[in-house]
Structures are given as C-alpha cells and as structure tokens.
Amino acid sequence: PGRRRERKKVTVSPLDKRLSAAAQTGLAILVLTTASAAGALEAVAVTIPRRNLSKDELLNELKTRQAQMALQQAKAEMERARAEFDETP
C-alpha cells in the first residue's frame, strides 16, 4: 500500500495502428509508389473488401496485390518496349 505501480507503456507503431484499424473495418488502402520507365510516380490504391482479417493476412493480401500490380506493370512496359522496337526501322 502507498506504493504506486508504474504501468508499462506499450508503444504501437503508426503502421500497426493503421493495419489493425484497416483489418477491423475490412478496408485497406495501400498506396504503392512505383517509378515507371518515364520516371513518373504512380500511386495505386488497393482496397480489400474482406472483413476481420488478421494483421498477417492483411499484409499477405497487400503483398500479393503489390506483386500482381508489379507484374502487370512489367508486362505493360514490355509491350511498350516491343512496340517501340517494332516501329524502329
């Protein structure tokens, strides 16, 4: 009695806060910034409609979407390069 117990502060990173909030609402918006061949920055918002995702599930989903978009972008770049090559005399 008389002695105050110090409560241990748990620090939560802003990313963790956003991820858990996103997991709870079932909507995660990931802004991917990728440099295209032209050097322009493209931001893509990804929404995930599933509800009650754990943080790990959410991260996996985001990584999968990120990989899919990177693949699509690479294919588009390849098509552009191929078209330019075909036009070259």
Ordered list of secondary-structure elements with their pairings:
Elements (H helix, E strand, L loop, with lengths): L13 H12 L4 E6 L5 E6 L8 H33 L2
Antiparallel strand pairs: 1-2
Shape: rod-shaped
Number of domains: 1
Q: Whole-number average pLDDT?
A: 65
Question: Which ranges are low-confidence, i.e. pLDDT below 50, for 5 or more consecutive residues?
Answer: 27-45
The rounded Rg comes to 21 Å
Structural class: alpha+beta
Percentage of residues assigned to helices: 40-55%
Keywords: Coiled coil
Coiled coil: 55-84
3D architecture notes:
- The chain is an alpha+beta fold and 89 residues long.
- The chain has one domain (14-87).
- The protein is built from two helices and two strands.
- The protein has helices at 14-25, 55-87; strands at residues 30-35, 41-46.
- The termini are far apart.
- Keywords: Coiled coil.
- Residues 55-84 form a coiled coil.
